Amino acid sequence: MKKIAGLLALLLMLTSCAPTSKYQKDFFAMDTFFELTAYGEHAPEALEAAEALSMELDAELSATDPESTLYALNEAEGGAVEGSIAELLKIALPLCKSTDGAFDISLLRLSQAWGFSGGEERVPEASEIAALLKSAGWEKIVYENNTVTIPEGAGLDFGAIAKGYTSQKISDLLASYGVESAMLSLGGNVQVLGRKPDGTLWNIGIADPSDDTRVAGSVSVENAVVITSGPYKRYFEQDGIRYHHILDPETGSPAESGLLSVTIISENGALADALSTALFVMGEEGALDYWREHDGFEVVLITEDGRVLATEGAAFTPAEDSDYSYSVVG
Ligand code: AMP
Ligand code: MG
Questions:
Q1: How many angstroms does the Cα of residue 199 sit away from the middle of ligand 2?
Q2: Ramachandran region, residue 194 (left: φ > 0; alpha: ψ -120 to 50; beta: rest)
Q3: Ligand 1 atom nearest 103 alpha carbon
Q4: pLDDT digit string (tens) for 120-141?
Q5: Of 97, 123, 106, nearest to 159 (Cα)?
Q6: Which ligand is nearest to the CA of 30?
Q7: pLDDT of residue 10 exceeding 60
Q8: Scanning 3, 182, 258, 260, which has the fewest C-beta atoms within 10 Å of its C-beta?
Q9: Structurally, how many domains does the chain consist of?
C-alpha cells in the first residue's frame, strides 16, 4: 500500500514539473489570419471549439459575405436580431454616443464606395460622398425590443469592433475549458489569457507604422487585449495620394488626424477595438481627452511627427533602435 502511495506521489510530482504543452491553431477568418496558441491539457479541444466559434461569428458578422446574417439584415434595412448582432448593437451604440460619433457603425455604404468593404478601391466623387453621408449616421439607427431599423441608404458595419469582440469571446471560451494561458493573434491584434506558462507577463510588440516589420516598442500584459488601428493596415494609392480605410464620419473620407496609429490596451476586447478606431479619428488631443474622461483602457499613440505617447498605465517600453521620441502622458 505504502509503495503504491509513494509511486502515486512521484507520478504527481512528475506531471506537475512537466513543461506545459503548447498547441496551435491557425486559420483564415474575418478577412485575416487567426493564430491561436494555447497551453495545457485542455488546449486541443478548446482550440477546436474556438475555431468553430470564429467561423460562426464570421458567418454572422461579415458585412461583405452575401450569405451572412448581417448582409441580409442590411439588405432588408433592419429586422429582428439576436446573438452576436444583438450583443454588438448593445455594446456599439453607447460607444458611438460616448465617442461623439467618431466611432460610427452606420458607414458601410461609404466604406463600400471607397472599395474598403468589397468592390473596387477608388476615390468617390464629392457628390457621391455627400449623398452617402446624408443617409448615414448612428443616431438614425433605432434599436429596441430586439429589432433594429437601419436608415435608408445606410448599412451596419462592425468592421471596427468585430475582431476585438471575437478575440474576447475566444478568450472566454478557452477559459471555460480550463485553459489558463493563451495568446490569440487576429491579424496582429492580440489578446492574452492569463500569463505565460512560466508565470511571467506577455510582451506584446506594437508595430512601427512606418515599417510594420519592425516594432516601435512593446507592452507587458496579462489577461488583456492589445489592439492597433492605423492607415498602414489597409490603404490604396491613386495619383500619388494614399487613401486609407478609417473614415472620418464628419467628412466621409479617410480621417486625417495627425496620427500614424492608436493602440488600446484593455481587459475588454470589443471596447479596445472600437476605441482604437474612434481615437484614431479623434486625433491626439481628442484621444487623450477621451482617455482622461473614461476608464477601462490605456493608450499608445504614434504621431505623424515622430512621437510615441503612452498613458501611465500602458506599461510601454520603447524599442532600443526606435526613431520615435517617447513620452508618458498623465
Ligand atoms: P479598425 O481596423 O478596427 O480600425 O477598423 C476599421 C474598419 O472599420 C474599416 O475597414 C471599416 O470597415 C470600419 N470603419 C471605418 N471607419 C469607421 C469609423 N469611423 N467608425 C466605425 N467603423 C469604421
Ligand atoms: Mg477597431
A1: 30
A2: left
A3: 20
A4: 999 999 999 999 999 999 999 9
A5: 106
A6: 1
A7: no
A8: 3
A9: 1
Other Cβ atoms within 10 Å of 35 Cβ, number? 16
- C-alpha to C-alpha distance for 250 and 101, rounded to whole angstroms: 8
Determine, yes or no, domain membership for 307. Answer: yes
Read off the pLDDT of residues 36-74 as tens digits, 9 standing for 90 and up: 999 999 999 999 999 999 999 999 999 999 999 999 999
* Closest C-alpha to ligand 1, atom 12: 159
* 193 inside domain: no
- Domain interval for residue 279: 201-330
- Whether 254 and 247 have beta carbons less than 8 Å apart is answered as yes
Q: Judge whether 149 lies within some domain.
A: no
The answer to whether residue 162 is domain-embedded is: no
Pocket of ligand 1 contains residue 40 by CB under 6 Å: no
CATH assignment of the domain containing 254: 3.10.520.10
Q: Give the gyration radius of the chain's Cα atoms.
A: 22
- In angstroms, the CA 286 to CA 186 distance is 27
pTM: 0.94
- Residue 244 beta carbon below 6 angstroms from any ligand 1 atom: no
